[in-house]
Write a structure and sequence with these properties.
By secondary structure, the protein is of the alpha/beta class. It has 2 domains: about 250 residues, TIM Barrel (Alpha-Beta Barrel); about 70 residues, no CATH class. It contains 14 helices and 9 strands. It has a 9-stranded mixed sheet with strand order 6-5-4-3-2-1-7-8-9. Helix 9 crosses helix 14. It is globular. It starts with 6 loop residues before the first helix and ends in a 6-residue tail after the last helix. The relative contact order is 0.11.
Length: about 350
């Protein structure tokens, strides 16, 4: 008699079967919405550039649009929804849209700088808990944080909001971007998170602005330095090694995008465009002139049909799962999703060097 599978193994098998079904049927399980690109901070590395500073030419979409959209994606099977920006709390109707999503049974994550979290927002999160409120913390000291954000008083407001949310039992995660301005404070930031019992993640990936301005790259650290900071987290080092072992023999795809963008995930931008993901600006569908289903079944599948062009070899590289190779992100720097970004290659090489001692020979 074969041993009975454990409840944990049974649960994993069910989840895998559910995911396989979602992929086969193109169920939009995971989505993100940016109700605004505006932000009251002026972070030196932000890829949104001047979009942060005012309303788009046609104005922002009204509450009715976003409430209708949430209802439509819930009907289509959306399980996880990220509300991001810009700074989403700048929208006075944030609470209504968030409530609609939670009451439809969607698990919601909120990306915020937390400086606008007030008592009303805390009560909302107490009543209808988010999956997580993920806060960007750009420095362990006031001087460094505000050198990045460009706004006096933002550091204290951010920390006060984090602690307020934690006191009220709201799930919080902390993250930071590795910059020349703050790289010397990453260990202190990691300790700030640990002292609060919070997860902390860092990211060394910076991109030019969407309008082509390359100023954010002036704040990029070397790939080696970025990875050295990442790998100060021993658990991350182990997970990176395990993931590379799992994926290193994967057959190359002939499709340009072999992620879940446009397959089980989507993004909707402040102009109401349904897009395959947050980083992609092409193959959109105007939701002001049609339904989510029309866009998901009509325009978005064409995004998945893009094939590899001659001369593009990232899909064959063994380290493509270490560098985080994303054609959309690479295209923001190189000018084309069919052309690699050298910095991402250096990240992959540095991560390989960092975990090579943990790999099976």
């Amino acid at each position: 008699m074969e041993p009975r599978a454990s409840p944990g193994d049974v649960a994993k098998a069910r989840l895998r079967a559910m995911f396989d079904y979602a992929v086969a049927q193109r169920v939009p399980l995971n989505g993100s919405i940016a109700m605004t690109h505006r932000c009251h901070l002026r972070c030196v590395h932000c890829y949104l550039g001047c979009e942060r500073q005012g309303l788009p030419a046609g104005g922002e979409l009204d509450t009715a649009f976003w409430l209708s959209l949430v209802g439509q994606v819930a009907d289509e099977g959306c399980l996880n929804l990220l509300i991001t920006g810009g700074e989403p709390l700048l929208r006075p109707d944030f609470a209504r849209v968030y409530r609609q999503a939670r009451e439809r049974g969607i698990l919601v994550t909120v990306f915020t700088n937390a400086t606008l979290v007030d008592e009303a927002i805390v009560r909302l999160f107490e009543e209808l808990p988010p999956q997580e409120v993920e806060v960007s913390l750009y420095g362990a000291s006031e001087g460094v944080y505000e050198r990045v954000t460009g706004v006096k008083g933002s550091y204290r407001r951010c920390l006060a909001a984090i602690d307020r949310l934690l006191e009220r039992g709201v799930s919080v995660g902390l993250k930071s971007v590795i910059l020349t301005d703050n790289q010397h404070e990453m260990s202190a930031l990691r300790k700030m998170a640990s002292d609060r019992g919070l997860d902390f993640r860092v990211d060394g990936a910076l991109f030019p602005c969407r309008d082509g301005d390359r100023a954010p790259l002036d704040h990029r650290v070397s790939a080696a330095d970025a990875v050295a900071i990442e790998m100060e987290d021993d658990d991350l080092r182990k997970k990176t090694a395990d993931y590379f072992q799992l994926t290193r023999g994967a057959a190359p795809s002939q499709q340009l995008y072999d992620c879940t963008a446009g397959l089980t995930s989507f993004h909707v931008d402040p102009e109401g465009r349904l897009l395959p993901c947050l980083m992609v600006g092409t193959h959109g569908f105007d939701l002001r002139n049609g339904t989510f289903r029309e866009g998901w079944e009509g325009a978005i599948p064409r995004f998945r049909e893009q094939e590899i062009r001659p001369g593009y070899h990232c899909h064959e590289c063994e380290m493509r799962f270490l560098c985080g190779a994303c054609p959309a992100q690479a295209g923001m720097e190189s000018g084309s999703p069919h052309q690699k970004a050298e910095y991402m290659c250096r990240l992959g090489e540095a991560r390989f060097d960092a975990v090579s001692g943990k790999l099976d020979k």
